[in-house]
Amino acid sequence: MQGSEAVNIALLIVDMQIEFLQDRPVTTASAYINHTAQIVRSGGHPVIHIQDVEEAGTISPERLAFIPEIQVEKDDLIVKKTFSNAFWQTELEQILLDRQIGFVVIAGFDAGNCVLFTYNGAIERGLKAAILQHGILSAKEDLVALMYRDRHVISYPVIEFMVQS
């Protein structure tokens, strides 16, 4: 960001679904995700929920639904994916291009899989990307620490500053 140039951002919330998170502690990450989503919405930027439907034929629609701890607002967008990278064979890239999004914040599940691959997909497409601090989960807890160590990380106060500038 140079000078006072505004940047269009989007929050990507990956795979926060009952099927994957039913028996996992989600309170802390969900609180950070919801708070950040409200900040992003308040600045007029999109919140995009990524929904994994890879096993849609074998898992009930109820289990593919988003967990109740994550707030999905009526103006939020939902992108359905069948691959780990939310950009691969979905409309996500076009949605971001249409809205002139240059920076994505990625949150959700699973740090070592879909969150990582979506982060890499954003970078491959020339977007600036960061992982939401305290906003990712993993089946393997050490992967969260690795994501924070090896990728760009952003906290919600910085996002708040960005959307108010």
Summarize the structure.
The protein has 165 residues and is an alpha/beta fold.
Would you kindly provide a written description of the structure presented here, covering whatever features stand out?
The protein has 165 residues and is α/β, with parallel strands linked by helices. It has 7 helices and 6 strands. It has helices at 18-21, 27-42, 61-64, 92-98, 111-124, 141-150, 156-164, and strands spanning 9-14, 47-52, 77-81, 103-109, 128-137, 153-154. It has a 6-stranded parallel β-sheet, with helices on both faces. α6 links the parallel β5 and β6 (153-154). α2 (27-42) runs parallel beside α7 (156-164). The longest helix has 16 residues, at 27-42. The chain is globular.
Key phrases:
165 residues; alpha/beta; six-stranded parallel β-sheet; 7 helices; 6 strands; globular
Low-confidence stretches: none
> Based on helices, strands and strand pairing, what is the structural class?
alpha/beta
Terminal CA distance:
11 Å
Strand order in space, largest sheet: 3-2-1-4-5-6
Number of helices: 7
Write the layout of secondary structure elements.
Elements: E1 9-14, H1 18-21, H2 27-42, E2 47-52, H3 61-64, E3 77-81, H4 92-98, E4 103-109, H5 111-124, E5 128-137, H6 141-150, E6 153-154, H7 156-164
Parallel strand pairs: 1-2, 1-4, 2-3, 4-5, 5-6
